[in-house]
Amino acid sequence: MKALILGNANFTGPDLISPAQLFPFFDNRAKLRQALDLTFEHVHAETFTEIEAACGEADVDAVFLRPSWQESPDEAERVLSKLKQENPDRKLIFLDPWDQVNSRFFNVLPYVDRFLKYQRLKDVTRYQQPLAGGTVITDYLVNELGYDIGDWYVGSEVPAGYESRIGTSWNVTLIKRFKQELLRRPMIWQPKIAKSIDVFCRVSYGVRGSHDWYGRYRQAAIAAIEPLEQHYKLAVNGEYVGDRVISSRQYFNEIRRSRIVVSPFGWGETTWRDYEAVCYDCLLIKPQMDHIDTQPNIYIPGETYVPVRWDFQDLEETCAYYLQHPEEADRIIQNARRVYKSYFEQGQFVKTVEDLLVA
C-alpha cells in the first residue's frame, strides 16, 4: 500500500504544530512498512492549490493531508470534492489544522473518509450544538463568567449525519524531545534533579492590547496561584508576545525542578506544557478535561492529572493539598508517565494508521 503525506513538515519555521502532526509518520516509517506494508512519500503542500496538484500526479491508495489553517473553506470544499470524485476508492484522511476542538473546515466532511482532530469533543453529537465563539471554552467564558469575546469565532456547520467521520488522531506531542525524555534510561551516576520549585506556571497572555479572552483567562489563573507565594516557592508569571521575561532555557530549567505544573487552557484545551509536565515528573493540575478525547490520553482525573474548576476557584487549595501530600502526588505523576510512555512502547500510532486504512 502506498500513501501520500501532504503538509508542512519543517520544524525550522514559525509553525511547529504542522510538523509535529506529521512527525510520527517519519519516526515510524520502518514500522509502518513492516507492520502494514505501507510506504509513503511526503510533499510540502499547504495550500489547496498545491494539494490538488500533488494528488493529481500521485498513484497512491491513501492521502493524509494537513493544510494551512489560513486556507479558505470554500477552496477546501472545491478541491476535496473534485479529488473524491476523480478517485472515489482512494482514502482521503484530513488532518485538521485548527488547535480548537472545533474547525472552520467541517464543510469537507462529505468528501473525506475521516476528519481527524488531535483534540476532539468526546461526544461528537455536541458538534451540532451552537457554542459562543465556537468552542466549549469560549461558550463557558461567555455564559458562565460574562466575558465579552467580540466577534471571535472558530467553527463551522457540521453537515447532518457526518459527525461520525470526526475522529481523534494523535496529539502533537509525539515529537522527538518528548519521546527521548520518556524512554531514556538514566545512567547510574546521573543524579536526580532536585525539585526546588513548588508551583510552575509560566504562560503567554498573547498580544498586548488585543484584549483577547485568551489573555484574560490566563491572568485569572495566575491571580489564583499568587496567594501561595506566602508559603511556597513559585515560578509563576504571564508575559505578552514580544515582552520576553524568561528565556526558553530558564523555562525548561524551572519546569524540570518543579513539583506542580499548572496548565490553564490556551487557544485549545491541550498544551505542550501538559505533556512537558509528565516528561519532567511534575504533577499536572489543569481545568477539568472530561469533554476531551486525545491520544495519548493523560487526562484521567485523579489518576494521571488533577482537575480543577474552570473558574480556578479551587486552584489554590488544590495546589496546597498536593504539596502537603507528596505521596498522593507521586502516585499520579507515575501513572501519567506510564500512560504516556506506553503509547510509544505499544506502537499506538501504527495501530491508529492501520485502523484508518482498513475502516
Describe the 3D structure:
β8 (197-206), α7 (213-225) and β9 form a beta-alpha-beta unit. The chain has helices spanning 17-27, 29-36, 48-56, 73-86, 136-143, 176-183, 213-225, 248-256, 272-279, 315-324, 326-345, 348-358; strands at 2-6, 39-43, 62-65, 91-95, 114-117, 120-121, 166-168, 197-206, 234-240, 258-262, 283-287, 292-293, 306-308. The model has no long low-confidence stretch (mean pLDDT 94). The chain is globular. The strands form three sheets. The protein has a six-stranded parallel β-sheet with strand order 2-1-3-4-5-7, sandwiched between helices. Strands 9-8-10-11-13 form a five-stranded parallel β-sheet, sandwiched between helices. A two-stranded antiparallel sheet has the order 6-12. The relative contact order is 0.12. The protein contains twelve helices and 13 strands. The chain folds into two domains: 2-169, Rossmann fold (3-Layer(aba) Sandwich); 185-345, Rossmann fold, CATH 3.40.50.2000. The chain is of the alpha/beta class and 359 residues long.
Layout of helices and strands:
Blueprint: E1 2-6, H1 17-27, H2 29-36, E2 39-43, H3 48-56, E3 62-65, H4 73-86, E4 91-95, E5 114-117, E6 120-121, H5 136-143, E7 166-168, H6 176-183, E8 197-206, H7 213-225, E9 234-240, H8 248-256, E10 258-262, H9 272-279, E11 283-287, E12 292-293, E13 306-308, H10 315-324, H11 326-345, H12 348-358
Parallel strand pairs: 1-2, 1-3, 3-4, 4-5, 5-7, 8-9, 8-10, 10-11, 11-13
Antiparallel strand pairs: 6-12
